[in-house]
Write a structure and sequence with these properties.
Elements lengths: L2 H22 L6 E10 L6 E6 L9 H8 L8 E4 L10 H8 L7 E3 L3 H4 L27 H10 L3 E2 L3 E7 L2 E7 L23 E6 L4 H9 L4 E4 L8 E2 L3 E2 L13 E5 L16 E5 L18 E9 L3
Helix pairs in contact: 2-3
Length: 311
């Protein structure tokens, strides 16, 4: 065998091993990320927020369900669910079982595109182009109403183009949310308005972190915006990060905590004004069943500790 042939065989073997690892190992390596953001008034006690997103649950995913159930042991003060809970018409009961130990806690939620429509087979290369949104809303409808009713009956507050107030551990919080921007269902105009002056913090909640939503929320005074959708890139390059975000958010903000202000898209982080809001994006716990792989981007939930701002 020639050296060129040996090299080709070696590359093919390495590629097959990488795909096997991404499909069989890493996508099941669930992890809880611990992050923080100094967004509360000076002197406030820290507040722990559990962020769940992009579980894409299928019936029978017992390992993922049990891992999510175990998150209650961390005793968060608040749960924020940013959608894409299900990926099958029979998954609502699975999702409710996964989150059931958390239902005694204060919580808010919005829907994602895969809470409305079942995933469908598509060319994964589209995610590297401007055609990544092609065919949205053209697959089978999922039982969204059943999912919303279950979460609301459990005591969590729906933020579909809605604004609400809630006191958590003595802190008055304001929440403003939108329906899924990836499906163009967001109607921030219905809830627009200055952040409540008597709230300790206004928190924006959205499934997909499109810039138009981030700009509008932070322009109105939201000090923190929480989002999912990006899967952290899902297939990442070690030491380089995400290749795509599946929206117009820049790749450096595909997961983790960063700063955002109106017009931040494309601006260097060093340009952030002192009063810039915080953006917390979680890479999520699942994948579409049509693309069940993760590489250099473990599935995750986030325990976000809200800290007091420096005096």
């Amino acid at each position: 065998m020639s050296s060129l042939a040996r090299a080709a065989v070696g590359l093919a073997a390495a590629g097959a091993a990488g795909i096997g690892y991404a499909a069989l190992v890493e996508r099941n390596l669930f992890t809880l990320r611990h992050r923080s953001a100094p967004v509360l008034p000076a002197g406030s006690e820290p507040l722990r927020v559990l962020h769940l997103t992009d579980m894409h649950l299928m019936p029978g995913q017992r390992r993922k369900v049990e891992w999510v159930r175990g998150l209650a042991e961390w005793e968060p003060d608040l749960v924020v669910n940013t959608g894409d809970n299900i990926a099958h018409r029979d998954s609502v009961a699975t999702a409710m079982r996964a989150m059931e130990p958390l239902f005694g806690l204060p919580g808010v939620f919005v829907m994602g595109s895969n809470d409305y429509f079942a995933p469908r087979l598509k060319n994964p290369a589209l995610y590297l182009t401007t055609s990544h949104r092609r065919g949205l809303g053209q697959s089978a409808a999922l039982p969204t109403g059943e999912l919303i009713a279950g979460l609301a009956d459990a005591g969590w507050v729906e933020l579909t183009n809605a604004r609400t107030r809630m006191t958590v551990r003595g802190l008055p919080l304001e929440f403003v949310g939108v329906d899924d921007p990836h499906l163009d269902r967001d109607r921030y105009d219905l809830v627009a308005g200055a952040a409540a002056a008597d709230a300790a913090l206004t928190i924006g909640v959205t499934h997909a972190p499109y810039q138009r939503v981030l700009d509008a929320m932070t322009a109105d005074g939201a000090g923190l915006v929480i989002a999912g959708h990006t899967h952290g890139g899902q297939l990442c390059v070690p030491f380089m990060g995400a290749l795509v975000t599946n929206c117009d958010l820049d790749r450096k903000r595909a997961r983790g905590v960063s700063r955002w202000w109106p017009g931040a898209g494309g601006a260097p982080s060093s340009a952030a004004p002192a009063d810039a809001a915080y953006l917390a994006v979680t890479a999520g716990l699942g994948t579409s069943p049509m693309a069940p792989v993760r590489f250099a981007c473990r599935p995750e939930a986030t325990l976000l500790t809200l800290l007091p701002r420096a005096e």
